[in-house]
Every structure is written in structure tokens, then in C-alpha cells.
Amino acid sequence: MKFVGAVTVVTGAGGGIGSALGERFHDAGATVILSDRAGTDVQQVADRLNARRANSAHVVIADVSRESENERLVREARQFAGPIDLFFANAGVGMGADLSSTEVDWNTSFDVNVHAHRWAAKYLLPEWLVAGRGYFASTASAAGVLAQIGSAPYSVTKHAAVAFAEWLSITYGSRGINVSCLCPQGVNTAMLRGGDRPGIDTNAGNVVRAAGVVLEPSAVADIVHDALVAEQFFIYPHAEVAEYVKVKANEHERWLGGMRKLQRRVFGV
């Protein structure tokens, strides 16, 4: 992918990985459409980018847990900047814990972490298929290719996010549609820190910190940029994740035992 002159959309762009992605794509020469919920810092991010290059960043306030808001986001992004070259479905939530998780936890997790991806794709694909090109990227998690100790809704929905990205690539890859799936481990965001926003599983951060190094969002954004230029499907900012995936595939019992060991290390059970 070439970013110079491209139109890129990033959801969850008010902070963390999302704002870092928007800034990195902008630095590479793209026009960026930044989207997040009301009450986030997404407008400040856009203002900072527009101060560098006028009229190069736009904001669409949207709640991607609703199909209608995803449709509006795609429509307004096109109105702002023209055809969309890259849509990065980055918004995500980390909610719930074990089987005591509420139905709200489960439903919100599916709506934001999975359904938002398919809803966006639903309104992007018709135009992309006519043009014979388009790029859909999503943020899943290392939990989507491995597992998340503690939070069942997070682990299950991130697996589903990976599966949806794979399905998109298989189904439309020969028709000019590129797909990438970002699967980071620990990143220094509000979700990792826990308590910065309501509904976040605070135990998840303890698990991730115990598992390895925590990267800054800007470092992740640099890795993502390079991977998108190379049109690479899986993006693993933490190299060890790729190794864990190999162990899981080839020595599944050993991998399960290792995950139970990590659980005992963090939770004592």
C-alpha cells in the first residue's frame, strides 16, 4: 500500500493505538478520518494533525457498536475526502471476566470487537469491488490467535475478529481487496492500565504485563505502517507471539499447560 495521497479511516482514534495509527498514516502522507465515541480526545488529535497540514484530518463521532453508525461513518468519510483506500477497524473493548460476565458484557464485546468489523465491511465492499481495490485492516489481539486468561468475552470475540479478517481475505483477496489483522500483546493503552475507562477488565492488564514486554502505541504504529506497505496479513508487533502460535499449532497440550501455568502465576489458581 502507498500512503501518499491515500484516504484512511481509523476507528478508536481518540487515544492509544488508534491515535498513533492516525498520526503515523498522516505522517506518511495520507488524509485521515479519525473516529471515536463522543467524549474522547479524537478532535484534539485531528487538530494537532491539521496544524501540521491543513484540512488533512477530519473527525466523525460514531458509536461503532451500532450498524447505522458504521454506515454513517463510511458515508461521511467519503463525503469528507472521497473514496476510502484503507479502513482500519481499531476500536475495541475489554469487558467481563469468567462465566459470571453479564449479557451486556458479552453483547457489547461482540458488537464492538466483531460486528463493527463486518458492518464496516458491508458498506465498504460494494464500492471497493467495483474499483477492484481496497484495504481493510483490523485490530484483534494476541488473544485472538492464542487466548486471554481471565476474560472470556475478550478472548472469544478477538478470536472471532481474526476469523472474520481471514474470511475477508479468502473471499475477496483475489478481487483486489487486501486485508491485515493486527495482533499485539502488551501495549501501553488505557485498556492495559485498567480503570481509565469504565467496563475494562483490570485483570487483563496484569496477565499481559506478566506475559512480556509492553510496547508504546507509536512503536506499534510504526510496525503497522511497514506491514501495510508490505500488504502482510498478520501483524505481530511482539515477535514472541508468532513463536507462541507455532507452539500452539504443533504442541497444543504443551501450550495449554503453559497457559494454565501463566494463570496460576497471575491469579494463584
Q: Strand pairing plus helix content: what structural class? A: alpha/beta
Tell me about the largest β-sheet: 7 strands, parallel
Q: Provide the low-confidence segments as ranges.
A: 195-201
Helix content: 40-55%
Mean pLDDT: 92
CATH architecture annotation: 3-Layer(aba) Sandwich
- What overall geometry do the principal axes of the alpha carbons give? globular
Helical segment count: 10
The CATH first-level class comes to Alpha Beta
The CATH topology, please?
Answer: Rossmann fold
Give me the oligomer status: single chain
Number of domains: 1
Order of helices and strands: EHEHEHEHEHEEHHEHEHH
* Sequence of strands across the biggest β-sheet: 3-2-1-4-5-6-9
